[in-house]
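Hi F.,

I've been meaning to write this up properly since the lab meeting, where we talked about keeping a consistent format for the predictions we share between groups. The idea is simple: the sequence comes first, exactly as it goes in, then the structure tokens exactly as they come out, then a line or two of notes. No screenshots and no reformatting. I'm using this chain as the first example so we have something concrete to point to.
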Amino acid sequence: MGNPTEKFDMNAAPIRIDTVLLRVRDLDAVSSFYRDVLGLVPLAEAGSSVTLGTEETPLLHLDGDPALRPRDPRQAGLFHTAFLLPSRGDLARWLGHVAETGVRLQGASDHIVSEALYLADPEGNGIEVYVDRPPSQWRDRAGDIRMATDPLDLQDLMRTAQGRTWTGFPIGGIVGHVHLQVGDTKEADRFYRDALGFDIAATYPGASFYGSGGYHHQLAGNIWNSRQAGTRDASEAGLSEITLGVDPTARQAITQRLGGDRFSDPWGTAFALAQ
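Output, unedited:
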């Protein structure tokens, strides 16, 4: 079954998610949601921008602009931002929190590599809150990562809460991955694998999962809602930029292939390498 305390060391991955930047129409409503529902802590506020995270680490930047058009769910951009909790007990306590507060979930799945709950913020930006299973359970006998979308055993999960309540997003929680909507999976593979340097860790029909350092995925791209989508309209709310943490070797390779430490994917999603 694997050691339940066994964890993937995300800091050892050559490429990983650092922060996510969303452009939103109602800054107060969206920032309150991430504070009250996910338990993120405001770390900085300046004009029409808010940064939230744990007490130690920024995870999410919000830029407010009421003039933005609502996001079009059929366009390329964000499928969900996935917040990785340190333990299964943390996920159980968060599930208890949303049940008590009446927050509507959109799904609950067992992905073999992880257990995940899904919802959306007030402007429709997708969110996953999840916990990884021990990495020794991720692979089949051939050494390939196995992923699926099976029903999540919520009763078994809740037993790990151990009578404790949710007290906010825990220190050690991070943005584990970002799942994107793209217009074409082959073109996405050319960018995220060939140019950015991820491995294709797994595939679903219409989706590729991109991992670094043996992780099941730090990024993913699907065409489930966005087949043949073009460049996203810059006047729309939604995902603006993903900042990647990279080690020195990965940074050198990426900047050589993409011409610098800031670049965009074929659909206009911007990326920056953390300094």
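Notes:
The chain has five helices and 16 strands.
Helices lie at 27-36, 88-101, 154-158, 185-195, 248-258.

If this format works for you, I'll send the rest the same way.

G.
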